[in-house]
Amino acid sequence: MRRVGLIVAIAVAVVDVLFIWFVGFVQGATSDMPWVVPFVASYLGLLAVCALLSATGPPSSWRIALLGASAGGLVVLGFLALFSIGLLLFVMGLVSIGGLVMAIRGATNRGFATGASIAGALLAVLIMVAGFAISDRIIACRPGVDSGGGTGFLTSSYSYTCQNGRAIVTWK
User: Fold this and answer.
1) How far is CA 78 from its chain centroid?
2) How far is residue 68's CA from residue 101's CA, in Å, rounded to a whole number?
3) pLDDT at position 54, please?
């Protein structure tokens, strides 16, 4: 399990750095939702830290819970972003699940280890859903008049109009 956590942590950290580099320096365009990219980058960093702590921490159910959080978050985010950065994240999530199964099989209390891994995965997915729901609602307006719209992650669709840096948002 230690090697799995270390491999996953390194791979996710590399994807995170490449994601930040690509969005920040290659694309370079401004977005009407400026907090989505920082949230995704921070969330990937959190998942990498969870995987790293599961590899380096003392043997306990916390290691299994941290690897479960890493696995759950990577599989769900990897699936949602499958056509951009998600494929490697999804594969690393599956690798984490493999390490998690081995760790649960070797645990003295399998029921508690299974519960800890499920709790970690659910917490990671809950943080991701909440982060997307919050960052979807923050609209940034450039000077002048602009308009747009989209669908929220958990909410209904919306449209907005920016007038002189002030957003007027209508939820449908």
Assistant:
1) 8
2) 10
3) 92
CA distance 44 to 131: 12
Q: Binning pLDDT at 50, 70 and 90, where does residue 75 land?
A: very high
Amino acid at 133: A
Angle made by CA atoms 135, 41, 99, in degrees to the nearest 5: 120
**The tokens of 152 are what?**
């929220």
Token pair in block for residue 11 = 């791979």
Best CA proximity match to 55, nearest among 67, 46, 45, 44: 67
CA–CA dist 166, 38 (Å, integer): 22
Q: Give alpha helix (H) positions in the chain.
A: 2-21, 36-56, 61-80, 87-106, 110-136
170 bridge partner residues: 159
Give how far the C-alpha of residue 111 lies from the chain's centroid of Cα atoms, to the nearest Å: 27
